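Structure first, sequence second, as always.
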């Protein structure tokens, strides 16, 4: 018998597939395709995009001074993000094989494809690369952390968690020592892909 949590997880997977189908429809509408992770627009669409590009001088002229002055604070975060990226890369490379946990492919999270949009000027492309990197690193680190938590301490919290990761519903309930002790091996097997669901 499937639990309510299993049914919710299945609905989430169905919604993710529906989202992917919708993205495929957008690719058709905006006339581009993906070739080996690279975006390829049709030639007339590229020409239209280039014609719509705002010159950097106009872009900077209409940007408020206070907004420009915040740029160093934003870009200074690239250093701790890169250090976090490198640290988690090392952590995953050393620890996940020992635990038998399937590694999280970094390339599935850090996606820098907006630079292919020809209607963006150079600064807009740089900003998009930065945001793609920053959010990608954070998303990737969250997935690595969720697999670690699922291995070591798959117990729900007593309080509500804002936006829990996808493994969280399958954790043992707070205070249920029996489910924690008896379910730990099965939860670890799921991380190794031994139940057929993958990590």
């Amino acid at each position: 018998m499937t639990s309510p949590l299993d049914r919710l997880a299945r609905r989430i997977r169905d919604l993710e597939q529906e989202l992917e189908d919708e993205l495929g429809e957008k690719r058709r509408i905006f006339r581009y395709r993906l070739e080996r992770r690279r975006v390829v627009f049709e030639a007339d669409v590229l020409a239209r995009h280039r014609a719509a590009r705002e010159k950097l001088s106009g872009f900077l002229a209409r940007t408020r001074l206070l907004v420009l002055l915040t740029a160093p604070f934003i870009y200074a975060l690239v250093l701790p993000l890169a250090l976090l990226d490198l640290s988690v890369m090392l952590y995953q490379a050393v620890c996940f094989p020992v635990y038998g946990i399937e590694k999280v492919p970094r390339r599935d999270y850090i996606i820098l494809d907006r630079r292919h949009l020809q209607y963006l000027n150079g600064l807009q492309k740089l900003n998009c690369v930065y945001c793609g990197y920053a959010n990608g690193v954070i998303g990737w680190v969250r997935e690595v952390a969720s697999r670690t938590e699922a291995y070591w301490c798959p117990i729900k919290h007593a309080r509500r968690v804002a936006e829990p990761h996808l493994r969280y519903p399958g954790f043992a309930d707070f205070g249920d020592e029996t489910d924690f002790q008896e379910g730990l091996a099965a939860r670890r097997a799921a991380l190794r892909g031994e139940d057929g669901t993958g990590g």
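Margin note: The first helix runs from residue 4 to 29.
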